[in-house]
Structures are given as structure tokens and as C-alpha cells.
Amino acid sequence: MAGGAAATSEGSAASAAALQWTVPEPEMSKLKSRRPRAVPSTSPPSKVQVPSTAARAPKPMDSAEVIRSLQVWQKAVSYVDGWVQKYPDWMQDTVAPAMMAILVLMVVRDAAYNSLGSSNGKFISFVDTCLSVMSYRDGLPNKKGKYFVGGDGQAAFGFRVVTGSFCMKFASGIAVSALIGKTPVVFKSIRHSLFVALGLVLLWLTPGDYAYTMMKKSHALRLVLLAGGGLYKLRKAVYAIEVIIESGGGFSLALASVVPW
């Protein structure tokens, strides 16, 4: 009995020693240095605001900024206007003949290249645009060519000039295109609208109103411009007739499409 008790006490001592065993210091430092494993969260993820890198749309100009820009343009034009009035003989004897020669050359070149077909060149199209802008300006009660800069009344006058010139250029073409079932040229390319804008600048905002005055006073210049405009309208009429013939339209439809030109 005594031997069994001694064996039991020895086993208990060994078990106690095993329970009191500790982890060595180097291993303990490694265990402490380890980060706890992340536990997945069950809550919905929060939305993070990420700054957008897309290009922001430009801020539209307000009326005050537009008026300031037009006033800067008016000052620049006034400066050049004074320079033109200081040297009128040089403008009359050198610039005008050179521009006339270039204009005649471009009209003759377009007439020889495109002939009497149904396709118009860019230069002839711009010539017709200038004639449309000039025709609208001739019909205005005030023909002094004042610059429309600043003020509500002048801004409304400028808007009326732009819309009126646009209608003078494209109204007949839109009517004919609707009649023959084709898309108007103004909706095919932005070039035609840019030509109207350039014609407005040329016939309203040139220093000393030089372009408009030359178109009104020079009979030779008007002859060349009217020849180019007539060639433009002739080709438009030929185009309308070709489209009607291809679609099987009658004579009355062809005549109705030519009348607006």
C-alpha cells in the first residue's frame, strides 16, 4: 500500500510539473510579435469618397464676362481702326487690289474645277454666306455699322443680327431639303455655321467697317461676289433636280425645289 501511494504521489508531481511548464522566452517573443488574425466583419462596407480624376466641364461664361470680352475686342478693333484711318491710301492702293486678285483667282479656280455640277466648293460657299450676311445688313434700318457691345438693347440687336443672317443663309436650303427628303447641309457639318460666324465678323467687326464698305462701293468686287453667289445657287438647283430625278419625282416637284433658290 505504501508503494502504491508513493507511485501515485510521484505521478501527481509529474503532472504538476508538466502543467507548470512554460514556453521559452525566444518563442514567447515570437508569439507576441505576431498580429492577431483579422475577423471578417458582417456589417456592410462603408462608402469611400474617391476624388474623381475625370475632366470637369468648363464653367459657362456669364453675361458680365461676355460683355467684358466684347469690350476688349472693341478696344482692339478701335486701335486697328485708327491705324487704318491713318494709312487709307496704303489700304486702298495695296491691300484692296491684292484681295481682289485673290478673290477672282479663287472664284475662277472653283468654276473651272467644279464646273456646273452639283457640288460646291468651300470658298464659293463662304462667298454666298458673305452675300447673305450683307443682304440682311442692307435690310436693317440702321446701316451705320455700330458695334453691338454691352447693354441689353445692343445685346438683343446682336442676337437679332445673328439669327437673321443665319436664316438668310439656310432658310431656303432647309425648305428645299425638307421638300426632297434630304438632310439640310447645316446639320451635316459645323463648317457652315462657322462660315456664318466668320461672315458676321468680316461684315460687322472689321476695323473702319472696311469689308462692308468695299463690298458696297466697289462695283468690280460686287460683280465677282455676285458671280460666285450665282454659281453657288445654280449648283444647289442642279443638285435638287438630280435628287428628284433619281427618286422618280415629277416636273412640278423639280420646279418647286428650284424656286426657293
Description:
Residues 40-52 have a biased composition (Polar residues). Residues 1-59 are annotated as: Disordered. The chain crosses the membrane at residues 194-212. Residues 1-18 have a biased composition (Low complexity). The chain is mostly helical and 261 residues long. It has a domain at 63-172 and 185-231. Helices cover 70% and strands 0% of the residues. The protein has ten helices and no strands. The longest helix has 29 residues, at 152-180. The radius of gyration is 42 Å and the shape is globular. The termini are far apart.
Low-confidence stretches: 1-11, 13-21, 147-151
Q: What proportion strand?
A: under 5%
Mean pLDDT: 72
Could you give the order of the helices and strands? HHHHHHHHHH
- The number of helices is 10
Percent range of helical residues: over 70%
**Form type:** globular
Number of strands: 0
Biggest sheet descriptor: none
Helix/strand/pairing category: mainly alpha
Round the Cα radius of gyration to an integer and report it.
42 Å
- Terminal-residue CA separation: 136 Å
